[in-house]
Fold this protein.
Amino acid sequence: MATTQDRQLVEQWRSIQNSYFRTAAAIDRALEAKFDIGLNEFEILDLVAESVDSACRMKALGERTPMTQSAVSKVVDRLEKAGLVSRQTCSDDRRSLYLELTDAGRALHSDAAVEHRALLKENLGE
Amino acid sequence: MATTQDRQLVEQWRSIQNSYFRTAAAIDRALEAKFDIGLNEFEILDLVAESVDSACRMKALGERTPMTQSAVSKVVDRLEKAGLVSRQTCSDDRRSLYLELTDAGRALHSDAAVEHRALLKENLGE
DNA sequence: TCAATCTATATGACACGTCATTCAATGACA
DNA sequence: TGTCATTGAATGACGTGTCATATAGATTGA
């Protein structure tokens, strides 16, 4: 039997879905159009940009994002191919890699971040 | 410059992302394991199940879901292939189709809905 | 009534994410 | 030290979503 609570849960869930998808789509389109990178690429850039320490980070990145380890790896592939980020080997654990923004990456990030925040405000803050 | 408000927005956004992804993944896995359908398939089933009127619905479905029209079409393909739903032509507009649950679809939906609601409660209500 | 246009759905090419696996490096412990 | 398990990351096969387009039916207006 569908209880009232069930219906409320479903409503709540649909509303989360809609706001998530609408916001994500809006940001994705804008970043794609203006900076030629997708939302996931930006989010990785953003995480790298806010990591001031130079700890080995591919792993850490995976923990701060809902993306899979392999998704992160592929996003980083694209960022690296685009010359925005570079993979550096870790001296203390040679399995690990950490990421560094290139100058181009830093520049693009700081422009894109403005757009990103503005769209978040528009869609979340309303 | 990163203002405090910016940081709050980003935090809020990440928290939405996480709760969305965690919940979606949990439901998806459970439905996949127990009923062999994905979350999107279930959501279409759910929409069809709650449409009591027999209006032409493919179109209407598209409006109640963040999915693309073409995504809906493919999800329905799979549901039809699985024998859970059937496409019916519309007499008043032969371009349109409406969907009907098969008996198997109705049965699966009512079981899966219990699971779905329970997981929503667990993840959203907590 | 016949174009021109619009609308509902389907489809194919493509991009991207996931899973399972692989590979190399590390750690643990006998 | 040598084996065995574990860990960080990359990769290939695959499924599914998106975009652009195709198709068929509807609508409009001359």
